[in-house]
Amino acid sequence: MIRKIVPDVISGQTLQKISPRENVRAAAKMMRDKKIAAVLVMEGEALVGIITERDMTVRVLAAGLDPDTATAADIMTINPDTLSPEDTASDAISMMRKRNYRHLPVVEGTRVVGMVSVRDLYAVYNTELEQDLKDRNAFIYGESYGGMQ
Q1: Angle, helix 89-99 to helix 118-141, in steps of 10 degrees
Q2: For each of the chain's 149 residues, which pLDDT tens digit applies?
Q3: At a CB cut-off of 8 Å and minimum separation 6, what does 74 contact?
Q4: For 5-141, which CATH class?
Q5: Are strands 17-18 and 111-117 parallel, antiparallel or unpaired?
Q6: Is the model's pTM score more than 0.85?
Q7: Angle 99-27-22 (CA atoms, 0-180°, nearest 5)?
Q8: Residue 72 burial (CB < 10 Å; 0-12/13-18/19+)?
Q9: Rounded to whole angstroms, how far apart are CA atoms 1 and 76?
Q10: What is the pLDDT of residue 143?
Q11: Do 89 and 5 form a contact (C-beta atoms < 8 A)?
Q12: Pick from 80, 90, 89: which is nearest to 112 by CA?
């Protein structure tokens, strides 16, 4: 089965976004409070960047920036690569592996509809593998396999 990014991998997400003018500490607090590892940087409804945990480490801590004065614009990845809702989970994994990403915004036209993470993709493939194993066991051992007392 071909899994599309929307709705098979992500659906109904609440976008976690900040303005490029907000300080880095606000982005870090949002990531902590929402238990997420990346945040969208948006100017109105337009995606202008992305900030990840890795950006916090490399571009803030290691660079000695003050998170209260540095802005999202100072540390974000500008104009990030994106996926379309019609792209497949395989497309996402391929792009992530090739470019060493863990998060990719999902954009439909000019509208951001979500963010896919490597963890989201892992969950989809893990579910598929579990179902495949159940199906094989049912085929090999019969439908009542696992249900016998």
Answers
A1: 130
A2: 678 898 888 988 999 999 999 999 999 999 999 999 999 999 999 999 999 999 999 999 999 999 999 999 999 999 999 999 999 888 999 999 999 999 999 999 999 999 999 989 888 776 666 666 777 777 788 765 555 54
A3: 24, 59, 65
A4: alpha beta
A5: unpaired
A6: no
A7: 110
A8: buried
A9: 35
A10: 65
A11: yes
A12: 80
- Which pair of structure tokens corresponds to residue 93? 């994994």
In sequence order, the β-bridge partners of residue 22 are: none
The pLDDT score that the predictor gives to residue 12 is 85
d(CA 77, CA 41): 9
Q: Where are the domains of the chain?
A: 5-141
Tokens of 26: 């606000």
What token pair was written down for 14? Answer: 């609440």
Contacts 24+ apart (CB under 8 A), 126-135: 128/1, 128/3
